[in-house]
Design goal:
GO terms for molecular function: alcohol dehydrogenase (NADP+) activity; zinc ion binding. Keywords: Metal-binding, Oxidoreductase, Zinc. Pfam families: ADH_N, ADH_zinc_N. The chain is built from eleven helices and 17 strands. With 346 residues, it is α/β, with parallel strands linked by helices. The protein has two domains: 209 residues, Quinone Oxidoreductase, Chain A, domain 1 (Alpha-Beta Complex); 131 residues, 3-Layer(aba) Sandwich (Rossmann fold), CATH 3.40.50.720. A hairpin with an 8-residue loop joins strand 1 and strand 2. Helix 4 crosses helix 5 and helix 4 packs across helix 10. The longest helix is centred in the C-terminal third of the chain and has 14 residues. The two termini are 19 Å apart. The relative contact order is 0.16.
Length: 346
């Protein structure tokens, strides 16, 4: 076992504090990663504050991990010491169910293991990226291309794949009109990726406060949802709408913006349930769908795509002792557009 420094929430809703945790010895197929940067995802806040239900404490959040390999197990074939790598939301799965066999490990039915707030196959809690090092099975590690710096690559391990996967699945590309609801940590990557895929991109945000940013990131249009005229003018416009916000929305209103046969895909995960009049789906043969991150192979595909198109996250680099402040700023929508922890400060 290796003792490493980390930042952990000792209990639900408690401020995160510096502590030490134990990392398992490097096994035959394991990779030891010296974490360089860790993104702060809104999911970290939901889980550290038990917004999504009972959680495991102490909790070391962080599933947007970028670092360098410093040791490999004797059976490792994919990575070598010195490689630039990342770890996202998963560190293990059953590898035998139907979903795992086709590269959908995020939908594992036999026991997927989250990077943190989960129990590993060894019976011990998993701890995430707000730490100095992590040990991960090579099959759940991805390679960060040389074209991406590690700091802007870290958020791609969640924010990048969370938006890339549904955009690809639902056919975002040339001759398609795509709207992104929310210009935050997820939304700004959704705009960048949809634009790179060739779609005509619109941002739907509460206000026009971030309009200049949205257009610079690749949006063709920007509309305020607080203006009722937006829903009148854009009725039946979009082939695909990607909702990235974690607050409950009036999905009926947003479905009115979808073309006949189009889809509204949700990647945000509000803590509260929503209600929906099903006539907003029936009329127009529309689809309301969800999407959850992506499999390991698709995550690698996303990283390669982002490197090819020069797409990194827009980040604000912080010290570890600023994590609690950063959480409050995320909740206040006061970040453009992803906080990333310099783990050298842990």
């Amino acid at each position: 076992m290796t003792t490493v420094s980390a930042y952990a929430a000792p209990a639900a809703k408690a401020p995160l504090e510096r502590t030490t945790i134990q990392r398992r010895p490097v096994g035959e197929f394991d990779v030891l990663i010296d974490i360089k940067f860790a993104g702060i995802c809104h999911s970290d806040i939901h889980q550290a504050r038990e917004g999504w239900g009972e959680a495991i404490f102490p909790m070391v959040p962080g599933h947007e991990i970028a670092g360098v390999v410093t040791e490999v197990g004797t059976g490792v074939t994919k990575y070598a010491v010195g490689d630039r790598v990342g770890v996202g939301c998963l560190v293990d799965s059953c590898r035998e169910c139907e979903n795992c066999k086709v590269g959908l490990e995020q939908h594992c039915t036999g026991g997927g293991v989250g990077t943190y707030n989960a129990i590993g196959k060894d019976g011990e809690p998993t701890y995430g990226g707000y730490s100095e090092k992590v040990v991960v099975d090579e099959n759940f590690v991805v390679r960060i291309p040389d074209g991406l710096s590690l700091d802007v690559a870290a958020p791609l391990l969640c924010a990048g794949i969370t938006t890339y996967s549904p955009l690809k699945h639902w056919g975002a590309g040339p001759d398609k009109k795509v709207a992104v609801i929310g210009l935050g940590g997820l939304g700004h990557m959704g705009v960048k990726i949809a634009h790179a895929l060739g779609a005509e991109v619109t941002v739907l945000s509460q206000s026009l406060r971030k309009k200049d940013d949205g257009l610079k990131l690749g949006a063709d249009h920007y509309h305020a949802t607080s203006d009722p005229k937006t829903f009148e003018e854009l009725a039946g416009t979009f082939d695909l709408i990607l909702s990235t916000v974690s607050a409950p929305l009036d999905f009926g209103a947003y479905l009115s913006l979808v073309k006949t046969g189009g889809a509204l895909v949700n990647v945000g995960a509000p803590e509260e349930p929503i209600s929906l009049n099903l006539f907003s789906l029936i009329g127009g043969n529309k689809t309301l769908a969800g999407s959850m991150i992506g499999g390991i192979a698709e995550t690698q595909e996303m990283l390669d795509f982002c490197a090819e198109h020069g797409l990194g996250a827009e980040i604000e680099l912080i010290r570890a002792d600023q994590i609690n402040e950063a959480y409050e700023r995320v909740l206040a929508s006061d970040v453009r557009y992803r906080f990333v922890i310099d783990t050298a400060t842990i």
